[in-house]
Amino acid sequence: MRRYETLVIFDPDISEEDRTNLLEKICDLIPKFNGIFLIQDDWGIKKLAYEIKKKIRGYYVRLDFCGDGSLVDELERFFRIDDRVMKYMSVLLDKDADPEKIKEEIAAETAAKASETADKPDTSVESTEDVSPKKDADASTEKDADTSPEKDADGDSDASKPETKEEE
């Protein structure tokens, strides 16, 4: 069985309910053609690189599944027919994929991510340091800047350059 990845860009103006129904139809289509659905990764609304159907944004969804060429043909036929799909692209990831092994890898990966987030300490606590000394330090550097000789674009001070008279 082959493993495919399909990236679909939906019209961003359709409702969440319509988008959910459309994705359910796509996910139901995969088992009908002897495929195995693995992952649906919603990327959300993103800016397009160029206008598609007079739209500058699109709702991106990545589908990961196993199947054969007839499944990909049917999915792409479905995408061409439906006006809510702006663009799509299917890519072959692996010619000899084991769906059960892939599902185990995905489950292990999500478990690892969940344990990472549980192990991390809460970093959202705000610092209680007094920031008023920094304001005083900034004020003293401004005073130093006012007393220093003026510098030109090269960074040289005007005081170190000899004055030259311009010829008329």
The whole-number mean of residue pLDDT values reads 78
Number of helices: 4
> How widely separated are the two ends?
87 Å
CATH superfamily of the domain at 2-111: Ribosomal protein S6/Translation elongation factor EF1B
Q: What best-fitting shape do the alpha-carbon axes yield?
A: globular
What's the Cα radius of gyration? 30 Å
Helix and strand pattern? EHEEHEHH
Largest sheet: 4 strands, antiparallel
- What is the highest CATH level, the class of the domain at 2-111? Alpha Beta
The beta-strand count equals 4
Fill in the CATH topology of the domain at 2-111. Answer: Alpha-Beta Plaits
Query: Strand order, biggest sheet?
Result: 2-3-1-4
Percentage of helical residues?
Answer: 25-40%
Low-pLDDT residue spans: 127-133, 135-143
Q: What share of residues are in beta strands? A: 25-35%
Structural class: alpha+beta
CATH architecture of the domain at 2-111: 2-Layer Sandwich
Give the helix/strand layout.
Blueprint: E1 2-10, H1 16-32, E2 36-52, E3 55-67, H2 69-81, E4 85-94, H3 99-119, H4 132-147
Antiparallel strand pairs: 1-3, 1-4, 2-3
Describe the protein.
A four-stranded antiparallel beta sheet has the order 2-3-1-4. The model is unreliable at 127-133 and 135-143 (pLDDT under 50). The N and C termini lie far apart (87 Å). It has 168 residues and is α+β, with helices and mostly antiparallel strands. It has a domain at 2-111: Ribosomal protein S6/Translation elongation factor EF1B (Alpha-Beta Plaits). Strand 2 (36-52) and strand 3 form a beta hairpin. The chain has four helices and four strands. The chain is globular.
